[in-house]
């Protein structure tokens, strides 16, 4: 058996086409396009690439993109001031602060300062809370992108035993909440989990989000399981790898996502969807 490779890029492109059509209809009706403000602090090369990819997606769908490129020496108070001004700007619909931030900046405080109605990353405690009580609005991009990708692949999630490996605030925890909302029975695994292999071996759906290359052994995958690899790790030879031993896992799973080309494009597409939704929600308020 060889798994069906889920083409996240193709699914993301379809979502981007749908968003573009919606924005085109807005413009034809005399309404304005959404606006996304992206804040990049410092000159981290990977962060610069991520920001560029988001700007390209904005151009593709017709979202206005504001780039705020700041030196790594910026003070926390000055960054606070910028975010507060974006919160108050009626023409700015979404605010994204690219991680990681310099060590002298309190990232938790920065994310909490963003207006929840403009939190298109879906990281604000208010938005995570809405997801937890089954009233989601702006949802964390990567976890929600995973749900949309699986649904687009025709996978019924209801009743599946799902194991999420990794419990970060941005990915693992909201991923567990998304899977609960979708009707899965969810187990969250982390560094204190006693027998990771045993949990993975019984899972109908494995979501790897630990950021450790090859952590999930291919032989652990239950035959016919669904494997979603969110991990993206740069190896010493420069190649990218996920958290799952792909080749062996592929021979056992029914569905599997590649790295790259799996979850990553869905994260960006969902960010675009959130930006449009943020504008629509504010219009309805």
Automatic annotation (TrEMBL):
Pfam families: THF_DHG_CYH, THF_DHG_CYH_C. Residues 6-121 form the Tetrahydrofolate dehydrogenase/cyclohydrolase catalytic domain. NADP(+) binds at residues 166-168, 232. Keywords: Amino-acid biosynthesis, Histidine biosynthesis, Hydrolase, Methionine biosynthesis, Multifunctional enzyme, NADP, One-carbon metabolism, Oxidoreductase, Purine biosynthesis. One of its GO terms (molecular function) is methylenetetrahydrofolate dehydrogenase (NADP+) activity. Residues 140-280 form the Tetrahydrofolate dehydrogenase/cyclohydrolase NAD(P)-binding domain. Its EC number is 1.5.1.5, 3.5.4.9. InterPro entries: Aminoacid_DH-like_N_sf (IPR046346), NAD(P)-bd_dom_sf (IPR036291), THF_DH/CycHdrlase (IPR000672), THF_DH/CycHdrlase_cat_dom (IPR020630), THF_DH/CycHdrlase_CS (IPR020867), THF_DH/CycHdrlase_NAD-bd_dom (IPR020631). HAMAP family: THF_DHG_CYH (MF_01576). This is Bifunctional protein FolD. It comes from Methylophilus luteus.
